[in-house]
Amino acid sequence: MAFPSPEPQSKLVVIPVPFEATVSYGGGTEHGPDAVREASAQVDLLDRRFGEAWQAGICQEDADGRFAAWGREARDLASPIIERGGATDADADAVGKIDALCARKRVGAGAGGRAALAEGKIPCLLGGEHAVSLGAIRACAEKHGEIGVLQIDAHMDLREAFEGFRYSHASVMYNALEEIAGVTRLVQVGIRDLSRGETDYAKAQGKRVQTFYDDDLFDGVARGEGFAEACGQIIGRVARQGVRHVRHRRARSVAVPEHGNAGAGGSRVPRGVIAAAHAGGVGQAHRRVRSGRGGAGGRTRRLGRERRGAGAVPAVYGGAAEPRLMA
Questions:
Q1: Which one, 13, 94, 138, 302, has the greatest CB density within 10 A?
Q2: Are the C-beta atoms of residues 109 and 15 closer than 8 Å to each other?
Q3: Is the confidence at residue 8, as pLDDT, over 80?
Q4: What 8-state DSSP symbol labels residue 164?
């Protein structure tokens, strides 16, 4: 972030997590934090609706070199497994090492989020592959108790493991539900790429997991139903202390050049979901824009401008580019 805001005066602290290990299609997400910093200098600061929001103060910390080193080591081990289509019994040693490196990343990312929360700041984890957020979600739950997660995404990410990796990008929401008791609600929006096992798991969770499918949302719009009403229903399902989990394909307005795993349909959920999250009064929210899966509608996607609502809003962004963070 190219803003002259020293960390003591900043309300939003960007914590780079350039970690990429289990991305299963494409790659390059580890370069996300550097790409965002570089691009941020080219973005005008006035937002027509939200004004000079950057004046709240944004500071990007220097990246901890261990994240990239752990990611490269894990990626070197994971790549041949992914190319073969998944792990076998013969890969047990490599998978164990990959899981251990992912655990180090999880602890390190959580520590960064926890430190920012302790100072009353908005931690924004900037990745990196999807799973960078798990440690930060835990930090939010430790800080606020019971929390809800608002996941705007094409994929459910409820696989117990993917390609043999327990902490895969495709398992992050499963791990959040299984490992973090404070996550009492997961509200998924825009889901369109899923497996039978994931839908069965979601149903078994009862009201803890509530899914707004992509086709249902757009069927409603086609019938003339107000999208604002749908957004109100979505926000109403999330706890007052919420975690907002936003994948970059699902919103629009800033170019995103690359993804890590393709999903059919491209980017369609209007950015009204994001605006409604603010207007709906989600108090403590955790935002994440993820990269690691891409849309089939082209290599370039658009990111939506976002406005922070009342209170500290823990944020996690993962992905190859997000040149604007609105504080």
A1: 13
A2: yes
A3: no
A4: T
Check: CB of residue 121 under 8 Å from CB of residue 94: no
CA dihedral 186, 272, 279, 4 (to 10 degrees): 100
Tokens 């117990």 sit on residue = 160
Res 86 pLDDT > 70: yes
Radius of gyration of the chain (CA): 18
DSSP at 292: S
pLDDT of residue 246: 53
3-state DSSP assignment of residue 187:
strand
The C-alpha torsion from 218 through 172 and 116 to 147, rounded to 10°, is 60
| Average pLDDT value over all residues in the chain | 76
DSSP class of 62: P
Q: Which residue has the tokens 């931690």?
A: 123
- Give the span between the Cα atoms of 201 and 115, in whole angstroms: 33
Lowest mean pLDDT among 26-35, 60-69, 282-291: 282-291
User: Does residue 128 have a cis bond before it (omega within 30 degrees)?
Assistant: yes
Give me the phi and psi of 51, to 5 degrees please: 75, -150
**pLDDT 10s digits, 198-213:** 999 999 999 999 999 9
Half-sphere exposure of 89 (CA within 13 A, CB side): 0
Cα–Cα distance for residue pair 213/199, rounded to 1 Å: 11
Q: Sorting pLDDT into bands at 50, 70 and 90, what band is 266? A: low
pLDDT single digits (tens) 168-225: 999 999 999 999 999 999 999 999 999 999 999 999 999 999 999 999 999 998 898 8
Whole-number Å distance between alpha carbons of 74 and 316? 21
For residues 113 and 136, give the distance between their C-alpha atoms in angstroms, rounded to a whole number: 5
Q: Which domains does the chain have, with CATH numbers?
A: 7-318 (3.40.800.10)
Q: Is 36 left (phi over 0), alpha (psi -120 to 50) or beta?
A: alpha
